[in-house]
Please model this.
Amino acid sequence: MADIIQLLPDSVANQIAAGEVIQRPASAVKELLENAIDAGSDTISLVIKDAGKTLIQVNDNGSGMSETDARLSFERHATSKIKHAADLFNINTKGFRGEALASIAAIAQVELKTKKEGKDLGTNILMEGSEVKEQEPCSTSKGTSFSIKNLFFNVPARRNFLKSNPVEVKHIIDEFQRVALVHADISFSMYNNGNEVFNLKKGSFRQRIVGIFGEKYNQRLVPVIEDTDLVKIEGFVSKPEFAKKTRGEQFFFVNDRFIKSAYLNHAVQNAFDQLLSKDQFPSYFLKLTIDPTKIDINIHPTKTEIKFEDERAIYAIIRTAVKQALGKHNIAPTLDFEQENSFNVPLMKNTDSIKVPTIKVNPSYNPFETKIVSTPPPKPKADNWDSLYSSFEKDTNEIIEHQEKKQEQQVFSSNWDNEEDEETKTLLQLHNKYIFTQLKSGYLIIDQQRAHERILFEQFLKNLEEGKGITQQLLFPETVDFVSADAELLNELKSEVANLGFTMDKVGRSSFVVNGVPAELKDQNVKKVFESLLEQFKMNESELKLKKHENLAISMARSSAIKSGKKLNTEEMKVLVDELFACEMPYSLPNGKPTIISLNLDDLNQQFDYQ
Model:
């Protein structure tokens, strides 16, 4: 029998490795940015087109590579960072395994231009599917320019599994932010389809946070500083009043490398105990500096997970540091029971003159004077007492008739859909949250917020598919500012948002002028609607993996629906119930949560022990 085990060709082996290292365009962006940082660059730019599917280009002014190094950089397991196995436990750089460039070259068309300082000419290498197409000297500036074109061109199955452009751009921006945040000493810029998304100058960590997420964050941040023998912690957490309903800006960096850790995240959340409700999440930007020998970063292909030698101690230190920071800046409410208010005297200036305290006395006051006794009101006369009850029977009958009429008004209709007498349809609102209506066999309880969400969801989904959203023009156009990432996401969703009924124009890098809104939102705050829409869209995309139209419709419905606690009049309740039962699926939300609960009359009788 012939031998059947063979060595895979390098091109095939590299494509298999690329499946672990390069999962989407954002993965390639991360690897190239980290290589640029390791090269000692202080200026890095990122250019993408078609969400990175057509072009990803990273330019830096780092040390550059020689002709030999440039060619070897595309070989698997070729690296300048590791020489011995022991080096794996003392890593101070970003890349170290030597798989990134080989994996990228296996699934894309790659062009590399690089030159070391002091050299007259650099090196230009063209590769396609792990095969070197061209290598020659070229004229270029110091540093490296790496271009990836037509990612996954030879792996169509992987390309077909990529998400929509807005989603892929969001992932790229996330990776860019994670790298740029922690390296405030490097200038970063990013361009998407020719539009500038970020232009970040060198500065402090706080300035970098503000540069990425907006000026409003400057007033939200509380500094956290703690230095122990095990770990050094520095960074910021947000004030409790700025907590969000989704896990938004939450960043841990260990030795300038972004990591994900649910365990350490719990430490921060625990520090906000009694300051936030369970459905609120604080923002935080925390940098941990720890001895590289005390951690293992080679446990996951994407290097976003780290194994700590003493994780429980780090948990305790983070929790304590955050809690102390909140206390020092008077975030947590405190009462000082030891301070004596009578000694709380303001400081005096040198020019202020000292005034002798004076006491005012009324010389005519005599405490022994006879007090004036007030005259009590006259007692009612007992004459004609029986006249008080002369109208008793008449008044009692009027009260009884009024109560009977009131009860008649509250009789529920036996069948909501087939009721002919519209005046007998009576609806009751309970706790400004639930709507009650009677059935022949019992009664219905309708959640007003979920009912409105269901109605709006079907309306918005229809508008997105047909492009017939009705627009209500604003009397005064409103300018709305966003952080760069949200502005870019909204720009990618521009055509879909227009189908919903929004009319707007982009002005500047991250601002939009809104001229019209969907007719369903004519009375709502435009900025809050957009902020809630984008927040819901990002959360749904990461957690529910929805299609874009469905995601947008759900996000719009959730951000626009009337909320629990809003008092509705009878006409508003009737319209809400009518529109709910006109829906294709009135009984639940798209996520399966019920909008209506039906309770049987027999169950109610049983509760009252009726036989």
Summary: The longest helix spans residues 448-466.
